[in-house]
Write a structure and sequence with these properties.
mainly alpha; 45% helix; 2 strands; elongated
Length: 130
């Protein structure tokens, strides 16, 4: 007895065939024509929405000159001057609103005064918490 079973009979096949054409010509032409029509329609719509002849009339022939940008010639010196002005304001006296009598005092003096006197209308700390 052989180990392999008997091969089954081969099914009957017809002759080998091939495709007559790879791509159908009509759908390709229809898609191409549709894309072309869509492009023409988009160009017409864009021309209606953004007319060039009106834009050309809005712009004057000699355009005004643009101002030169204000560039820093020495950024570290500018930063040092800015910091010095801030420190002078923090550590000096001056008016905030002279009409209403509001002035500013040096920051160190203000912190000492708040530490000594507290802030008016600030809720007091509760010592007895459960």
């Amino acid at each position: 007895m052989p180990d392999d079973p008997a091969p089954a009979a081969a099914p009957p096949f017809s002759r080998p065939r091939h495709e007559a054409r790879d791509v159908a010509l009509r759908p390709v032409l229809a898609v191409g024509l549709g894309v072309g029509v869509a492009l023409v329609m988009l160009a017409v719509v864009a021309n209606l929405l953004f007319p060039q002849h009106r834009l050309d009339r809005l712009l004057a022939a000699p355009l005004p000159p643009m101002a030169a940008p204000a560039l820093q010639s020495d950024p570290p010196a500018d930063m040092a001057a800015f910091r010095a002005a801030d420190m002078a304001r923090l550590n000096g006296f001056g008016w905030v609103d002279r009409a209403h009598g509001v002035a500013h005092v040096p920051i160190g003096q203000a912190m000492r005064q708040v530490a000594r006197d507290g802030i008016p209308d600030w809720p007091a700390a509760v010592a007895d918490r459960p």
